Amino acid sequence: MSSEWDKLIPRPKSKFLEVECPNCNNTQVVFSHSSRIVKCHICGEILAKPSGGKAIIKGEVKNEYG
Asked: Which of 63, 66, 23, 15 is nearest to 47 (CA)?
């Protein structure tokens, strides 16, 4: 039954990512298709840059949600 629903209802390709800052090792949740520059709350380092679709992630991805 679930395979029938998977064919009928498409799943989103976007996710929320837990990214670790390369400078201060702070972890922060970032949207994978972010349309704005995302900076670290602690040191201000850029963690994600928009690229017209998927964002370019500058830090290390620790977890994926979604």
From this structure: 23
CA distances 37 to 9, 11, 43, 65, Å, are 31, 25, 14, 20
CATH architecture of 20-65: Single Sheet (2.20)
More confident residue, 27 or 66: 27
- Name beta bridge partners: 46: 39
Which residues does 7 contact at the CB level (< 8 Å), separation at least 6?
A: none
Q: Please state the pTM of the whole predicted model.
A: 0.80
